[in-house]
Structures are given as structure tokens and as C-alpha cells.
């Protein structure tokens, strides 16, 4: 385990990499920002499947979070202004809205700025996450 948190993203996705580059350039954090393909997932207590489904946060204390919760934890470990944004993102009503928004972005990340066709989730992952209709919780 590291003395700081670790933020894990999909390094095969251009959109995710663009976002990670933004974090490294603009968000003052002590956290390691690393693609899951180059992370020691066993040491972090993560699986490939978890990392394919959402960004991950593993705190210095070993506590984990995924998706917008992971983003909130990363921001909470950053500079003062970003900490406020992280705290807001972790508020229950905001968190409730953040998950559907995160899933929509994940489903459409190949269409986002910086995204490419390679960013599209594999068909198996899309069906596992969103069912055959493409909407969460449906089959």
C-alpha cells in the first residue's frame, strides 16, 4: 500500500487518458494516477473487471471507491478548491445523481472529447453493465 491514495483508470481509453492527463496537470493531488493496465491490481485489492467497469480509488488506508465516488475521493485528496468539489460530489443527493451521469459517460466515452472508437466498452462489458437494451438494470 502507498502512503497516498491511488486513482486507477483505463489506460486503453483515450477519453480516460485525457481525463487522467487533466488530473495530473491541473489538480494538485498527492495521489498516484495510474492506468489499471500498469497497476499492481493484487496489491491494490482490485480486479480487472472492477477496473473495466469504473475508475477506482484505493486510499492509503486501503478503503476503496469506484466511479464518481472514486473521483470524489481523489478531489478530496487535492487542493482546497478541489476538496470542496469532492465534498459536494460525496453529498448523498449529488452522489445519487452522479452515478447515472457517470454510467452515461462510461457508455458514451468513445463519443466524448478526446475519445476514440477504441474507448468503446467491449460488448460483453456493456451487456454486463447495462443489459442488452443499453440501459442500466435492464436485460
Helical amount among residues, as a percent range?
A: 40-55%
Mean pLDDT: 86
Structural class from helices and strands? alpha+beta
What's the total number of strands?
4
Secondary structure tally, helices:
7
Largest sheet: 4 strands, mixed
Concise description?
By secondary structure, this protein is α+β, with helices and mostly antiparallel strands. Helix content is 48%, strand content 10%. Pfam families: DCC1-like.
Word description of this protein:
- This protein is an alpha+beta fold.
- It has one domain.
- It contains 7 helices and 4 strands, in the order βαβααββαααα.
- It has helices at 14-26, 41-44, 48-53, 67-76, 80-89, 92-107, 123-130, and strands spanning 6-9, 32-35, 56-58, 64-66.
- Strands 2-1-3-4 form a 4-stranded mixed beta sheet.
- Helix 4 packs antiparallel against helix 5.
- It starts with 5 loop residues before the first strand and ends in a 9-residue tail after the last helix.
- Mean pLDDT is 86; it is low at 135-139.
- This is DUF393 domain-containing protein.
- InterPro entries: DCC1-like.
Indicate the topology.
Blueprint: E1 6-9, H1 14-26, E2 32-35, H2 41-44, H3 48-53, E3 56-58, E4 64-66, H4 67-76, H5 80-89, H6 92-107, H7 123-130
Parallel strand pairs: 1-2
Antiparallel strand pairs: 1-3, 3-4
Organism: Micromonospora echinofusca
Protein name: DUF393 domain-containing protein
Pfam families: DCC1-like
